[in-house]
Amino acid sequence: xxxxxxxxxxxxxxxxxxxxxxxxxxxxxxxxxxxxxxxxxxxxxxxxxxxxxxxxxxxxxxxxxxxxxxxxxxxxxxxxxxxxxxxxxxxxxxxxxxxxxxxxxxxxxxxxxxxxxxxxxxxxxxxxxxxxxxxxxxxxxxxxxxxxxxxxxxxxxxxxxxxxxxxxxxxxxxxxxxxxxxxxxxxxxxxxxxxxxxxxxxxxxxxxxxxxxxxxxxxxxxxxxxxxxxxxxxxxxxxxxxxxxxxxxxxxxxxxxxxxxxxxxxxxxxxxxxxxxxxxxxxxxxxxxxxxxxxxxxxxxxxxxxxxxxxxxxxxxxxxxxxxxxxxxxxxxxxxxxxxxxxxxxxxxxxxxxxxxxxxxxxxxxxxxxxxxxxxxxxxxxxxxxxxxxxxxxxxxxx
Length: 399
Ligand SMILES: Cc1cc2nc3c(=O)[nH]c(=O)nc-3n(C[C@H](O)[C@H](O)[C@H](O)COP(=O)(O)OP(=O)(O)OC[C@H]3O[C@@H](n4cnc5c(N)ncnc54)[C@H](O)[C@@H]3O)c2cc1C
Hints:
Layout: E1 5-10, H1 14-25, E2 30-34, E3 47-49, H2 50-55, E4 66-68, E5 70-75, E6 78-84, E7 90-92, H3 95-109, E8 112-115, E9 119-124, E10 129-133, E11 136-145, H4 152-156, E12 163-174, H5 177-182, E13 186-191, E14 198-203, E15 208-215, H6 222-233, E16 239-251, E17 258-259, E18 262-264, H7 280-298, H8 306-332, H9 334-343, H10 345-356, H11 363-366, H12 372-396
Parallel strand pairs: 1-2, 1-11, 2-8, 5-13, 11-18
Antiparallel strand pairs: 3-7, 4-7, 5-6, 9-10, 10-11, 12-15, 12-16, 13-14, 14-15, 17-18
Helix pairs in contact: 1-3, 1-7, 7-8, 8-9, 8-12, 9-10
Bound molecules: flavin-adenine dinucleotide.
């Protein structure tokens, strides 16, 4: 049977476009089915950690609106302090331009795209997969589900287990131009206001991205928190261009990331950092890993796509599980960690290195050396406290 492509990719976000780019560069025929018309708006802070830039195999520097050298921290809008780094820790972009650029790179490499094609369902046969969209069906040997947080591909392939729902609200805000200029290299971060979540301000060149996020179980408290954040910031002459919420799926256990001829990547796979909500790095990295496994399978180098599940679990899930442990620790003693980052240069440098991808969350327990058993106990204890605090907050909210 002739197919429409060797690999169909659902979704042209960072996971889909990077997978498409990697496959097309290796000479594989790729069809991307994307439900929107690009460029499209995506609810996202679009803070790009340095490690994302290292992972993307082409230059994206023209898309970086701002370079972040400083972070202003507050804990529940108190105890404010600023920490800086001579090296940029983070970059901010606009997702409409960023995603459009990544998609164009995939197309230049030889991938094809159909816009307005919403994938509804995938069905597997012995030798190929049929992808149903609202306007017709397509067939391929393999399918990558990169269709985001509410992935239809992951649902049809039975790959949605072990995912906790998170939620974030984000607004693009025009403020007093003098304030926008003054904070063009600075991120504001309020943590410790509610368990498992935080509020942020990212400078985006001519405006700010302001948002709050955390576990979906606390969603009813997010708008009041967002209002508090705005009042606290006093940004002057505010015009809100958009204010929207969007799910953040968080995978909490090692799991299968493929089923037969179907793989899932990025948000579709629940690959977001439970501590920070960062997802673009994991989308890019899992898209690249998915492409490598598909290529190896199509070249008959491997008998199945198992290598994908193995690499995502070993490399990405291990990191996300460590992030989850650190999140529980933070929820247990938020003010202590806030002060530790303020007062301890080693702690601050470790924080910067993790953002830059020079160190990983896994290095935190390793730093305990022969006292690693203490780390294990602290993790067990803090999970209990953190879960309790989350449940209590969901009932009581802000006092
Ligand atoms: C408020 C908020 C702030 C965030 N801030 C940051 C941040 O600062 N830094 C960071 O790293 N991460 C951030 N994230 C997370 C980040 O946005 C995601 O992790 C990232 O976009 C995942 O990329 P993706 O390619 O997997 O999915 P997406 O970027 O969601 O792309 C999925 C694509 O699939 C398309 N699609 C969806 N359904 C279908 C379908 N059925 N058929 C065809 N196409 C479909 C969509 O139109 C979209 O183009 C934030 C998330 C939220 C909600």
